[in-house]
Amino acid sequence: MNKLRHASLAGAAITVMVLTAACGGGGSSAKDDYGKAAAGSSSTAGDGYGQAGSGSGGYGSGGSAANAGAKNAPAQQLAVREAPGIGSVVADSKGWTLYRFDKDTAEPPASRCDGDCAKAWPPVPAGDASTAMGLDAELGEVERADGTRQLTLAGWPVYRYAKDTAPGDTKGQGVGGTWNAFAPDGKKAGGKAGEEPGKGADKGADKGKEAGKGKEAEEVAGVSVKAEPTLGKILVDGQGRTLYRFDKDSAWPMKFACNDACLDTWKPARPVEKSAVQGVPEKLITTVTRPDGTKQLAVDCWPVYWFTGDKKAGDIEGQGKQGVWFAVDDQGKKVTTPKG
């Protein structure tokens, strides 16, 4: 069993709610939106989510208070278990899957999941932790910005995922392309051997790999204007999907009100390069950072989404949904009435 090693790095954690310079200014007021599900509410009625189907609301039904306690407890003895479709992953003594964040660093250990991010991804407290046979990574700890100490594995800060509703769940695997369960050696579960982002000079190289992977995905990334018969000129993404904004979000100050269950129905649009923008003033197209650290396309500093209820390119089923979701025109304004 490994003993904890200390890595005091007060102030190393930083808030992930940051914007590009074009959308700078306001701070987030979205803490309550993350808190709803954490408090155990799985209802989305009246929240303006406008679900296309039944969805998988909130963090699970019933017993969420107990689950919240389990996700903030020390890990105790870590163990290795097999996860379908992923392979060997690390879990705590209760069977909850443990995760790592690509935007953190292991050398030196530092957490960059703070504030609202830490509500979605509860940091595992340091102390009362040990390893079992089959786990080949050193335990340690890092001091977070708030002064608390977080468990590390192979130098990486350790988290649980709030949407894992039962021990053995791996719903956090691959979220945002930056969250992964731990493999027994401290690397990312389900990844290729030797891929280890976020360590010193290698971090920049890894970002390059991330930006360049998936040629097909790059080919469909974009923003353009479509002449819609009833709404006029509206913005669509590279796949022709209508882009929407949410009235409960805010650009000034920045606020993300579509979180948790809302994201099962309204998917954050991918950021794009300026070269992939057609028919829209480039100054309107920016990138914002969500509370979980993922990037999202913004138009005139408003986060934009596509709707899972739109089944084919050009559909506008999300328009006016619950009176809070609206298409966006070629000047970055919401479209509230049909053309003419």
From TrEMBL:
Signal peptide bounds: 1-21
Entry keyword Glycoprotein: no
Lineage: Bacteria, Bacillati, Actinomycetota, Actinomycetes, Kitasatosporales
Compositional bias ranges of the Gly residues kind: 47-63
NCBIfam families: SCO0930_lipo
PANTHER family in the record: BLL4220 PROTEIN (PTHR39335)
Low complexity: compositionally biased ranges: 36-46
Domain of life (superkingdom): Bacteria
Protein name, entry field: SCO0930 family lipoprotein
Annotated spans, Disordered: 28-68, 186-221
Sequence ranges of Basic and acidic residues compositional bias: 186-218
